[in-house]
Every structure is written in structure tokens, then in C-alpha cells.
Amino acid sequence: MVRKYKFGAPFETEAVTADLPLCSEPCPYGTVDTASGFSFTCTLGARDVVYGLGEAVRGINKRGYEYVSFATDDGNHVEDKRSLYGAHNFVVVAGTPSFGVFVDCPARLTFDIGYTRQDTLHIYSECADLYLYIIDGGTPYDIVRQFRGIIGRSYIPPKFAFGYGQSRWGYKTPEDFRTVLKEHRNTHVPLDMLYMDIDYMQDYKDFTVNGENFPDFPAFVAEMQRQHIHLVPIIDAGVKVEDGYPVYEEGVEKGYFCHNADGSLFTPAVWPGWTHFPDVLDPEARAWFGGQYRVLLDAGIDGFWNDMNEPAIFYSKQGLADLAETYREALPEGEDMALLRVAQQGAWLAGSEKDYARFYHNVGGQMVRHDTVHNLYGYNMTRAAAEAFARLRPQQRILLFSRSSYIGMHRYGGIWTGDNRSWWSHILLNLQMLPSLNMCGFLYVGADIGGFGSDTTRDLLLRWLELAVFVPLMRNHSGTGIRRQEFYQFEQPEDLRHVIRVRYRLLPYLYSEYMKAALGGDMLFKPLAFVYPDDPFAPQVEDQLMLGGEVMIAPVYTQNAAGRYVYLPEEMDFVKFLPDGTIAEQWLPQGHHYVEIALNEVAMFIRKGRCIPLVDAAEYVDALDLGTMQYLGDKTAAYELYDDDGITPVAE
Ligand code: MIG
């Protein structure tokens, strides 16, 4: 059962699509206090597990730390980070009984999950204008499915988006892209997507292409398409301030950018230099901004990634003015002190709270201060694009994912989890975020394989790929200036080829399970305890996941390991894709096992009484041949395959 409560005058985030009556009875599972701000408090049983929060650090069980929903551009995803790029305010307390809490609040919100007191869940915000949803009835998994039922259907990407993609901040010229493609095709390493980072643009201007490097961009897009490659350009939130740039000029003229309290335009600096933020919370401005994607669609583009939409701010004009003021004040104290204070304040300029409280959105004629709706920006930037695609390309699915997000955005696009590092711990973090994201409706998700920051190593990349083989968004991406990490940069590239090819062998299965999850309001990745609710050990498993209805994954995520310990809640078929193309299968009984998994093997487990389809690998998704299908697992079982043309939008 879902109970909806209203406090104050909430901002309509449109996270929830179901039309629910307001509940007037007291909240059954916790104490709500709105005397000053909002506060929800409840007691946690000694063994209760708390699931949820989507994109956040730490484990599948979120208990024992404090998390803050405030979309933040922070590329240092260490354990004590309270905020990442998204704000996903849904948790499920698995106890007796279990219940779920969704706080639909677009301002800063804190989840103290047994942090201050180990037996207390405390959710609070300065903002007291919000909707609260309390969900109960059944297991944690049942509660998640009820929640998914009220927030609308998850985004469905085109089928090609389940292929492998190569990305790098630094690819600039057509030659750069051709080289990557050639390396893949020459050695038959599958590839469906090449991602274009900010360097394809003219001076970092959205919806422009560098004319010197790409004198005929549509021809280049067509050249790539002939080789079955989809180019996926990045779009940033900030629109460059530059006379003669039509997006800037039209946005100013029509009043579509965010403004200061005095009505002047808010001017943050991001990659293009001075920019304005399109006011995507205003439906008219949103439609206008979405319409800008058309120039790239018309060039043949069929996929995009939306970046910097927390929105990230390097500094603002007003922030610089404050800095100058600090400098002026500090000068009499002597040069050293002045420099110190200037340096300190300079470091605080990026993503500064002050800036987020300086600018306004126009929502139905009302001035809404940004920090009160901060977490909705990436959501609505992505919604702008998706709504435009529905208008401009009604017969076609377009690939779309975003860095920042809020629940509700899952209907419009996927997400990637931002600037991770080439750290072993980030393979595990990648795995642990998957079920949490799925709980919040985000199914088309993935992390930068190999790590965005820091120098990667061959073994790290291999192990990461061996997880990513199962993850919908499979993209190798890295930052500029660090070690290159395309598969062909390493010795014995045939091992990397083998792993990537396994993805394509499994692709019909993964697509089928993805579609079933999207159409059925289900999770693709589940914690073990969701599937085995009576298993006493399952709630403690933090490094294995159930995938779809048939599979369990348990990747190796430590360096120099020849295998790992794994827990089987029931008898399972231990499957290994060996580098020579053959498959080893071994039925293992319920219990704890040590399994050997070499660096160039992909391992997975198939549940008792289940089987999965498998096809021959191909170099791109369209070349997969379902005629080659065979089955793995229990050969007496049947598997119901979902398939479609992968491009026609699926009617709701
Ligand atoms: O400030 O476009 O997360 O994937 O390569 C960095 C350059 C901006 C951040 C994204 C990353 C991308 C990078 N961007």
C-alpha cells in the first residue's frame, strides 16, 4: 500500500506519475515533524537492512552512514562523500515489517541512516514543502515494485545501446575516431558506439561542431554509420555567452535562461567560459532547449550524453566579485595573508552554495530560487531532450543518458555514474550501485569502465569489463591526460577481445531481461536477499547480484586474485567463458565456495531449473544472428525471449 502525505506547498517535481489520494492518517512507521523544516524519524531493528539511495557511495546496505541529496560535481568518489551527481530519495527498511520511504523534495535532504545513532533512521531537510510517500506490504522487493509502479516506466534505449562503446576525453578529429574504429574492426573486437566528448564542439558551444575538424559533419556521421557505428556527442548544461551564437542570442531574447534576483542573467563560468543556464524547469524554455538537439539529429546523430547538469559551476561573476572584495579587505593585513585568503576562497568557488542560492527559475511566472529545486536540473535538462525527441523523431528510440538525475528522470534517459577512478574499489562500487539505481527506476546505467581518473592497468580493465559485460551501458571512458585505455593499448589484446565478445554472445538475453524489467516495473539487478528472502546469509552479501530471472553474477574485483569466494543461496550452474571460445559448466551445491576465475575468463552462475539463451558473437549489435541461439544452464528448462526491432518506440 502506498500512502501519500503533503506538507506545506511542495514544488511539483513530477517524480511520481500515479494519481494518488492524500493520506490523512498518521504515518505508521515513523515520526514526522515539520515544526522547523522536515524530519522523519524511526527506529531500526538490530538486524534491519536499509536499501536504496540510487547513486551513492558505500554498500548495498546503506546503514551506518549519512548521505546528503544535493547534486554535486565531485570526481573523488571516496567513502566519506555524502553527495554525488544524483539525488535519489528512496529507501527501503527491510525489517519487521518492511517499508519504503520516498521523500519528494528537490532541495537538500539528509539521510542519517544509523550514523548519529545506530538504531535510528533520520531523514531531514530545511525544506518543509514536500510530498512524503510511505509504502508497505510484503517483502522489500514487493515494496520496490510498488514504488516503481507509481513513478512510471523506465527509459527504453535503442538496442544498439547494449553494444560496446569506446570513449575518451581527448578524441578531437575524424582521424582520432577512425583510428579507434579501425583498431576494433581490424581485430574483430565488437564496437557499436564512439562517444564524442567536448572537443568535437566549436569552442565548447552546445549544438555546434568544430568546422575545421569536421568540415562536413553529416558526411562523417554517415561514414561511421556505414561501418555500423553510432556517434554519441556530449551536451553540456551551460550555453556559451557569445554574440552571434544563435542559441545564446535566442535564449536571451526569449528569456529562456536562469536569472539573478534583479532580473539580470546569471552568468556562471564552465568549459565555454561565461555561460547562461537554460531554465529547463520552465516548460517553454525546456521545449526550446530540447529543440536545439535537432541540428545534431538532422546530421544523423541518434544518441547523446548530457553532462555538467548538476549544474556544475566553476565560478560565477558574482563569486569573482566576492573574491575581489575579500582580496581588497585582506590587503591591509599583509601580502601573505591576502594571498592565503584569496586562494582559500578561490577553491570554494566551484559548485559554491552561494552561487546556487543566487539564481532563479521562472516556473509559471513564479521566481523559484535555484537551491530550493537544485536536484531537478539534470532531470529536466534530460527531459528537455527526450520530449524533443518524441516530437522530432516519434518513430525512433534515441540513446540518452545524463550525469545528474532525480527520480522521475528514469522515464527520459539513463545515467552514467560520473568521474570514477581506476581503482579496484570502484569495480565493487559500480556493482553495489546497480540494485540501488534499479530500485529508483534507473535501468539504463553504467560506470566508466577502466576508470575515468587515474592510470588504469590491464588487469583492472579486464576485471572491470568482466562485470560490465552484464551492465546495460557498457562504455570504456577516461579523462584527458591519463594513461590511454582502449583495448589495443595493452599486451595480449585478444584477452580483452574475448571478454567484449562474451557481451555480444549474451546480448539477446540481456536485452530481453532489460525489456522485461522496463515493461514490468522490475529491477534488472537485485540484491540476493530480494530473491531469497528466507536465506539468513543473503542480506550480508555485498559483492554478488542477481541479474534478471536466471543469473547471479560474482565478479572478481581485487588485484592479483586467481578467483574468489562466492555464496550460492541454492544449487547453481557455474559457467565460465574460456578464452578459447569454449564454455565450462559445473553444478555447485548451495553454500560457500572458492571458485577460480582467471584474468581472461568471464564467470557467471545460472539458477537451478533455469536456462539462458546464447548466440554467436558479432562485431556490432545488428549483425547478431538469433539463428545461432543455443542454451546454457538447465537444458530441460525453457526461456521466454523478449525481442523486437530495437528501434521502434514501445507503446506504453
Ligand atoms: O569537467 O567533458 O563526467 O565524463 O569526459 C569535466 C569532459 C567535464 C565530466 C564528465 C566526463 C567528461 C568531462 N566532463
Structure in words:
With 652 residues, the protein is an alpha+beta fold. Helix content is 25%, strand content 24%. It contains 14 helices and 38 strands. The strands form 9 sheets. It has a 9-stranded parallel β-sheet. Strands 29-30-31-36-33-34 form a 6-stranded antiparallel β-sheet. Helix 11 links the parallel strand 25 (414-416) and strand 26. Helix 5 (283-291) crosses helix 10, helix 7 runs antiparallel to helix 8 (335-348) and helix 12 runs parallel beside helix 13. The longest helix has 28 residues, at 493-520. The radius of gyration is 25 Å and the shape is globular. The protein starts with a strand and ends in a 19-residue tail after the last strand. The structure holds ligand MIG. Keywords: Glycosidase, Hydrolase. GO terms for molecular function: carbohydrate binding; hydrolase activity, hydrolyzing O-glycosyl compounds. It comes from Candidatus Gemmiger excrementipullorum.
